[in-house]
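User: Sequence in, structure out. Go.
Assistant: Echoing your sequence, followed by the structure tokens.
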Amino acid sequence: MTDARALRDLGPRPVWVRVHGVSKSYGDLAVLRDVDVCFRPGRITAVLGPNGAGKTTLLKMILGLVRPDEGTVTLGQARVNGDAAYRRDIGYMPQLPRFPDNLTGHELASMLDDLRGFEGRPDDSLVESFGIVTEMSKPFRALSGGNQQKLNAALALRYRATVLVLDEPTAGLDPVAARVLKDRVRTERDAGRTVLLTSHDLGQLQSLADDVVFLLDGVVRFEGEVSELLAATGQAELEGAIAALILEGGDERSGPARSSGCGEEVA
């Protein structure tokens, strides 16, 4: 079982997310194959790959929603095994929020507070920054698509979580709101949070991500800094670099060597 003390001890300190020797199959389909990656605190890591590469399965494992057939996922010193308590230390922004659409923003926030067992003063600054204070009293179904996405982001970042998992975070946002959110994500990174995100908008990612984990056919083909990926592929933009990796294919992993220990956590 997940070590409850280890979860409590996460606090605000930087925490590594480690994925070690992870494999997952659905029947005869191997979705992930012996995946070893580290997500570092104080960094924004983009998880990229074409459709069917294993990105969604990997993120679901980190969220505790899918269990690996082999290998381990750890958050700091706490091993992830689907225990709901572990999720309290994650802020998750899904691509498509599927909240009960009859509840208002205030009611959704209260519901999530209860589900997470959250005590203390939440961070609602994004509600103000997005200009949706008055929208919080409306049922979710009555909100525009853009305002639903703003509420989605505000709820994900409400709890000062140690680890943030953001799926297509700027999708559906206007340029002003997208800039507000990107600035906030950078602030979370600078505060030592471990930020994982995925997006099909590689232009947005290049301006936001520090590191890249690239998956192809369930295997990590590259793990390293964005600048290292651009240099390795001889490309000036992330879109070209990712296209080069897809076309290259093969079984060799690119990028700088990473120690199996993932580095040391900051106390």
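User: And one key feature?
Assistant: The mean pLDDT is 88.
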